[in-house]
Amino acid sequence: MFDTHIQKLGYPSHTSISVHEHKAPTDESVKLLAELEKKAQEKVDKAVRVGNTPIDVVIHTYDDWSNHHKKFAIHYKLNGKQYKVNESIPLHWLDDEEGIARALIKALSEHIAINLLQAVDRSLRSLIRD
Predict the structure, then answer these.
(1) Widest distance between CA atoms in the chain
(2) Conformation bin of residue 7: beta by default, left when phi > 0, alpha when psi is -120 to 50
(3) Is 98 helix (H, G, I), strand (E, B) or coil?
(4) How far is CA 28 from the centre of its chain?
């Protein structure tokens, strides 16, 4: 009735199959990554050049995708000494520029006030002892 044609399909005998495992990061690789990030941040901190005016401010920003925040490293020099303030702001706040500016100014002003008042406190204590 009908003519049929049968063809057998198969793999040639010289074919090899290799399987690649993709493993999750180990604790050691996570520690290594954290160490590399810390060293990179230290290099950025050392590269900051602060001028000789009463107070100069330099701000570095970077994204921290692990917790969905934008990190701000605020470097300033006050009375010849360099300080650093770290501030973290959630990424969903990035549309509110005024709110970010207020948060950064607040963090910086609190840090400056603490450092200035510590110097006053040391001076007062030395006067009281005398």
Answers:
(1) 122
(2) beta
(3) helix
(4) 20
* Cα–Cα distance for residue pair 89/65, rounded to 1 Å: 12
Main-chain phi, psi angles of 20, to 5 degrees: -110, 125
Name the residue ranges covered by the structural domains of the chain. Answer: 27-129
pLDDT tens, residue by residue, 89-128? 988 887 888 888 899 889 999 999 998 888 787 777 777 7
Nearest one of 103, 26, 30, 104 to 66, comparing CA atoms: 30
- Residue 80, by phi and psi: left (phi above 0), alpha (psi -120 to 50) or beta? left
Compute the distance between CA of residue 82 and CA of residue 57 in angstroms, rounded to an integer: 10
Compute CA 93 distance to the chain's CA centroid, rounded to the nearest angstrom.
17
d(CA 113, CA 109): 6
